[in-house]
Amino acid sequence: MKRHHIIINGKELYLDFKSIINSMFDIVHVTDQEGTTLYCSDNYEDFFGISPLEMIGKNIEEFYDLGYFKPSITKQVISSKKKVSTLQNTFNDRKLFVEGFPYYDASGKFSGVVNVSTDITNEEKLIDELKAVKELGSMYFEEINKKYTENNNEAHLSLVFRSEIMTQTVDLAKRLSKVDSSVTLLGESGVGKGVLARYIHENSFRNKKDFVHINCGAIPENLIESELFGYNKGAFTGADQKGKLGLIEKANGGTLFLDEIGDLPINLQVKLLNVLQEKQITRIGGSKPIDIDIRLITATNKDLKKMVAENSFREDLYYRIFVVPIEVPSLRERVEDISILVSYFMDIFSQKYLLNKKLSEKCYKIFEQYDWPGNVRELENLVERLVVTSNGDVITSDHIPLSISESIDSDTPNIKVNHIINLPKAVEETERQLVQMALKKYSTTVKIAEVLGISQASASRKIKKYSIQ
């Protein structure tokens, strides 16, 4: 190749294009308009197994026929007179990204082809490795999810907890899963009563049969009877001509979970009581009783005892279903569980939406201070919203709704009592939470004592008493 010179700012510079090309990592191959090689970069042999001396003066067709270049970019460019790009695998298992460019003389006449090849072997390997890691991660996630969501003798993934109060609740549920007593789950909306009901079923001897979940408040009153008890063909106008299997019958051998039992119409309370007493149902429009064997679990966020007194819930049904009550704690009663629940939901929704989001430490602190009136359901919904609406990979406190941030910043006391417990224990638990909250917000016992209105010595003793780190 010739040396060329240019003048920049009055200085003459000489350019040796061969040296420039040979200093590149890319492989360069130049032919004339017939495909005869005019030039190859020094690294050509490393990738194609042919030295530049062997190539120069020879037509590309000779080597194409021997299988060196397939596909042949040069042939395609000569034919089309346009830029062409493709991937090539070399004899030594390297992968190249090849681009062929037509070049023209001063008169605009097509003069030949310049091929520039870039070694992308490592990039391809990296992509393959990333794909493998992603597939492996998906497999692990599916296995973890499967472990908890399938029927098994262990746990359900949604039962994510480490607090003492939730540990006691789940332990009781597991003990009750081994017997067939009727269980009523009590607690606010969104605490996870349905999850606990399924946990009881999955750990029972009935776990090979159906778990049928019915929300008594979600089915219109004029339809709930046919949904629960089923009907024979022609039972009423508009009925399916084949008849219909009722949900109670569907649960035969398994577990029937009646959520929001307090919303069950009074006339159906009588029919449900008969089912529990006689262990039989009769479909609408039918006359033949059908034997059933079910385990009943109910749930409510209402005061059934009060409803009995008000004659809106049958007393005989109340005593039939209220054999063993389980109080499911609210999320504000199990603050220790918030961070692991958040991490769990972050993983769930990042996987679902193919995102890789992280939550800042400040967000975790805000979540632990918030009251969560909607409990775990509210937490789950908020995490999903933050994952799909936040910009960037890190979710910060700026993304959290003002309604939550402002409720935390308020100086107004927000202590709530949800059920009757031993007063000294309640006072002690309230004190523990206040000390824990103050310690999270302030780093010195002087400041903690100031905000709690106690002496510094008392603050130190209480921190030690509750083993708060």
From TrEMBL:
One of its GO terms (molecular function) is DNA binding. Residues 159-388 form the Sigma-54 factor interaction domain. SUPFAM superfamilies: Homeodomain-like, P-loop containing nucleoside triphosphate hydrolases, PYP-like sensor domain (PAS domain). Residues 13-66 form the PAS domain. It holds the Pfam family PAS. Keywords: Aromatic hydrocarbons catabolism, ATP-binding, DNA-binding, Nucleotide-binding, Transcription, Transcription regulation. One of its GO terms (biological process) is regulation of DNA-templated transcription. SMART domains: AAA, PAS. PANTHER family: C4-DICARBOXYLATE TRANSPORT TRANSCRIPTIONAL REGULATORY PROTEIN DCTD, TRANSCRIPTIONAL REGULATORY PROTEIN. This is HTH-type transcriptional regulatory protein TyrR.
